Amino acid sequence: MKSFRFPGFAMLVLAALLWPEVGAQAAGSRIKDIASLQAGRDNQLIGYGLIVGLQGSGDSLRSSPFTDQSMRAMLQNLGISTQGGQSNAKNVAAVMVTATLPPFSSPGSRIDATVSSLGDATSLRGGTLVMTSLTGADGQIYAVAQGSVIVSGFNAQGQASNLQEGITTSGRVPNGAIIERELPSKFKDSVNLVLQLRNPDFTTSIRIADTVNAFARAAFGAPIAEARDSQEVIVEKPRTADLARLMADIENLTVETDSPAKVVINERTGTIVIGAEVRVSKVAVSYGTLTVQVTETPQIIQPQPFSKGETAVQLQTDIVAQKAGGKVAMVEGPDLRTLVSGLNNIGVKPDGIIAILQGIKSAGALQAELVLQ
């Protein structure tokens, strides 16, 4: 019996021939990157608060009466009487406070809060957010925010000019909100897992279900996943499985994704994004620009001496038309690289390529969806 030795490169080639699915999985994406857990959704929080400590850049209390009312109510709750006289201080600003409550958050953990001015404050830089309760859509208080406000923009103003960069009427309070209440539902109380695709597609949904079922047959002896539609995949929890460990195993499985062919065009910025699956049938393209230049050169005509004539103006207009380009090129794109090379060979700018792609789509030769932004 003879023995054979294979070099390292030959072993890799042989492995690719014997197990082609290994290469497909290596080129795929993890389920955690293409789908999210329905039970792991975020929740929006909102609140109304005051920012103090501003250096004369807060709300003018006459133009923003709600700021004055809120400040008086806060001082009364602290046991300070506000009888007699109206304050003209401009170091207070009323703000809306928003935050996002992450899934499975526990009381005591911290999240970021965003503040946005409600009145006529010019800057929130250097201010401090006073204790503000943040409520959810159900009206319950889930977090309390307080802390120093970080503003990225700045505003410099003089007597004759001013300079502003960025937005000075909104900012963030990093880790400024403390979670006080957890969500009613718990992850391990769920009967099944619902995976939601970030880019809905029937092919990808079926592939996720098949991949999960292949894992479940090896681990539990029966399939557990079913693709409900192009966006949702339902995974039933086996009796002997731990839900958290099951989700950890599923989200690391790799799936080869698929997506419809699209061409996204932003005419305002001249951006063109062509998907990998875009195909173009053979078509002839001619692109040329017409430039028309109109020049007015009026001439003054003086009368002869002692002729008793009048000075007149003689109008003269020169019109010149120039054409650039106009060559005919064959464009055919069996793959993305060939399509891009064919468009570049025409020698036009992005705005011209946008017009060409729109024309190819109208001619029925662009086998993709054209999305205009």
What would you note in describing this structure?
Strand 6 and strand 7 form a beta hairpin. The chain is α+β, with helices and mostly antiparallel strands and 373 residues long. Helix 1 packs across helix 2. The protein is flat, with a radius of gyration of 34 Å. It has three domains: 122 residues, no CATH class; 70 residues, Alpha-Beta Plaits; 94 residues, no CATH class. The N terminus is likely disordered. It has a six-stranded antiparallel barrel with strand order 3-4-5-10-7-6. The chain has a four-stranded antiparallel β-sheet with strand order 2-11-13-12. A three-stranded mixed β-sheet has the order 16-15-22, with helices on one face. The chain is 23% helix and 37% strand.
Instruction: Based on Cα principal axes, name the global outline.
Output: flat
Q: Helical region count? A: 8
Spatial strand arrangement across the major sheet: 3-4-5-10-7-6
Coarse structural class:
alpha+beta
| Separation, N- and C-terminal Cα atoms | 68 Å
Strand content: 35-45%
Q: What summary fits the major beta sheet? A: 6 strands, antiparallel, barrel
Low-pLDDT residue intervals, each spanning 5 or more residues = 1-26
Number of strands: 22
Mean pLDDT: 79
Domain count, please report it. Answer: 3
CA-based gyration radius: 34 Å
Helix-strand sequence? HHEHEEHEEEEEEEEHEEHEEEEEEEHHEE
Helical amount among residues, as a percent range?
A: 10-25%
